[in-house]
Amino acid sequence: MTVGKVRQAPYELLKEAILTGKLQPGQPLIETVLAEQYDVSRTPIREALTRLEQDGVVVRSERGLIVRMRSPEEILDIYEARILLEGRAARIAAERRSRVDVVTLQRLSHEMEVVDTSDETAMVTANREFHRALWRATHNEPMIDLLARLDLHLVRYPATTLTQPGRWHEANAEHRLIVDAIERSDGLAAEAVSTEHFTQARDIRLTLWGQRVV
């Protein structure tokens, strides 16, 4: 069904459809069908699919391009990379941060502590804003880009670790420790806490996957 004139670029629309589950894992992505659905020519659809393939959320199969499947192995792969990069990012942030970076992280950490925990979307948004601010405090654009790509992969798994019993308060405490270490320019401490923070998130994420497939 045609959805009318598109205001967003096909890339953004298709990415959103994948991340929200409107396009399911394993679903074929046929240019002609998508072009008709979004009321555009095949060229912008082809360009969008090429970008999504580069992002890693679309892959080639015997059936052509499909939405990338989900698996516990992929969760491990994502977190293996993310644990290393997030730990290093915290360490670099402690070494390079400006005073504005510290104030921003302190503000976002405080805002997380007063978030309505009955609002899952608000929790996820506040958490993502905090971590993106930490990435920016590295002043390392290649690292920021890599972390953003990893985050894109993780968003494909809709369940959040933050709603698990006790995890929100635990995560907030870990955030405070990270910010304190960054403010003191203690890179080793910031890296250690961040590494443990994402290791805990990985273990919870794997537990959630197990509950999903039982």
What does this structure look like?
The protein is mostly helical and 214 residues long. The chain has two domains: 10-67, Winged helix-like DNA-binding domain superfamily/Winged helix DNA-binding domain (Arc Repressor Mutant, subunit A, Orthogonal Bundle), CATH 1.10.10.10; 72-213, GntR ligand-binding domain-like (Four Helix Bundle (Hemerythrin (Met), subunit A), Up-down Bundle). The chain is 69% helix and 4% strand. It is built from nine helices and two strands. The chain has a two-stranded antiparallel ribbon. A hairpin with a 2-residue loop joins strand 1 and strand 2. Helix 2 packs across helix 3 (42-55). The longest helix has 27 residues, at 187-213. The radius of gyration is 19 Å and the shape is elongated. Residues 1-6 have low confidence and may be disordered.
Features:
single chain; 214 residues; mainly alpha; Arc Repressor Mutant, subunit A; Four Helix Bundle (Hemerythrin (Met), subunit A); two-stranded antiparallel ribbon; 69% helix
The tally of structural domains comes to 2
Question: Spans of 5+ residues with little confidence (pLDDT < 50)?
Answer: 1-6
* Full CATH superfamily name of the largest domain: GntR ligand-binding domain-like
Largest sheet: number of strands, sense, barrel closure: 2 strands, antiparallel
Radius of gyration: 19 Å
Q: What is the gist of this entry?
A:
By secondary structure, this protein is mainly alpha-helical.
How do the helices and strands line up, and which of them pair or pack?
Blueprint: H1 10-19, H2 31-37, H3 42-55, E1 58-61, E2 64-67, H4 72-96, H5 99-113, H6 120-136, H7 141-155, H8 167-183, H9 187-213
Antiparallel strand pairs: 1-2
